[in-house]
UniProtKB/TrEMBL annotation:
Keywords: Metal-binding, Molybdenum, Oxidoreductase
MF term (GO), any: molybdenum ion binding
Span of domain Oxidoreductase molybdopterin-binding: 39-212
Pfam families hit by this protein: Mo-co_dimer, Oxidored_molyb
Repressor listed as a keyword: no
The protein's name in its UniProt record: Sulfite oxidase
Species: Neobacillus massiliamazoniensis
Domain Moybdenum cofactor oxidoreductase dimerisation, residue spans: 234-348
């Protein structure tokens, strides 16, 4: 049996661990290697008595059992979940927060019932504006010294999208407890803070939700010392990661395959370019386009190197809306949404 990769530990309380993204092959990440992002300790509740209430500005408040949800029409979507803080350690100047490398991202198949199908049973009042999802996970925030459940809202447009699902399976198995069992919201195309785990209740409201994980965290603050210009974190940015070779690896002269992934929360990745001279010139990588709407694409570039020395390898993705990865990230003081061109260095000897 070959040696297998492990999660990369960032913190233990709460548990935050990265996917070993350099060693992930294919499009499906086994749940054992799916990154773990928590704000609090894991919740404690009895799943045998689990019910999901939908309340607030609905015509018919209803409490769904797991059995009721599982017999409703289902949908399976292959979705990237990327922590908004993925690659935070690469920001310069440095920012405070969990110092994620390149592995706070994973992908797999989620099966569940579209939220819109559940809401057909409850209806929505005309005054409805947002839908709030509260998780069972809770704890004290250091900035307020108060306890909160992890809660987030979605605007109706996103919440009612047919691919926004209340998921109960991951890769054809019940969702593992550490990833949200028994029910997890899946919001394709948005950073993963939107995909609330261990859903406790769903509430429809007529105003902008101002919980701390919406109004304080997961907000881009472009200024170090003020909140001027702040905007919410929503859609995943266009991005790419070089998986092979490893950063600072020593190689022999000869033929080498450079490979990686590229992804975006809006549109499609159409092209990945590689530079081997610090960004002066670029060549197209071979890209394996996906028929899925929300999955990453894989790419490879065959590199024949005859001269010894140190090389910088750079990857840059380009999408269907004409966007390309920037040379530098948009700095923000909480370190969200890093998506600058990816760089590694290797030595050939």
């Amino acid at each position: 049996m070959g040696i297998k990769p492990y999660l990369i530990t960032k913190s233990l309380t709460p548990e935050n661990q990265e996917t070993p993204i350099n060693f992930i092959k294919g499009d499906i990440v086994n749940y054992k290697l799916f990154y773990r992002r928590n704000h609090f300790s894991y919740p404690n509740f009895l799943t045998s008595f689990y019910f999901l209430p939908i309340e607030g500005l609905v015509r018919f408040p209803k409490v769904f059992s797991l059995q009721e949800i599982r017999v409703l029409p289902s949908k399976t979507v292959k979705v990237i979940l990327e922590c908004a803080g993925n690659k935070r350690e690469l920001f310069n100047p440095k920012v405070f927060g969990e110092q994620w490398g390149k592995g706070a991202i994973s992908q797999g198949k989620w099966k569940g019932t579209p939220l819109s199908a559940l809401l057909q049973y409850t209806g929505l009042l005309e005054t409805a504006k947002e839908i709030v999802f509260e998780g069972y996970d809770f704890g004290e925030r250091t900035d307020t010294n108060q306890q909160y459940h992890f809660s987030r809202s979605l605007p109706l447009e996103i919440a009612l999208h047919p691919d926004t699902i209340i998921a109960y399976e991951y890769n054809d198995q019940p969702i593992p407890f550490k990833h949200g069992y028994p029910l997890r919201l899946i919001v394709p195309g948005w950073y993963a803070m939107a995909s609330v785990k261990w859903i406790k209740k769903i509430t429809v409201i007529d105003h902008e939700f101002t919980g701390p994980f919406q109004a304080i965290d997961y907000v881009y603050y472009p200024n170090r010392d003020s909140d001027i210009g702040k905007i919410p974190v929503t859609t995943i940015n266009l991005n790419s990661t070089i998986q092979k070779p490893l950063n600072l690896q020593v190689l022999n002269t000869g033929n080498h395959t450079i490979e990686g992934i590229a992804w975006t929360g809006r549109g499609k990745v159409l092209k990945v370019e590689i530079s081997l001279d610090g960004g002066r010139t670029w060549e197209a990588a071979k890209i394996f386009l996906s028929t899925e709407n929300y999955s990453w694409v894989r790419w490879i570039y065959e590199w024949q190197v005859t001269e010894k020395g140190e090389y910088m390898i750079i990857s840059k993705a380009i999408d269907s809306e004409g966007r390309m990865q920037p040379n530098e990230p948009i700095w923000n003081r909480k370190g969200y949404g890093y998506n600058a061109i990816d760089k590694i260095e290797v030595k050939v000897e």
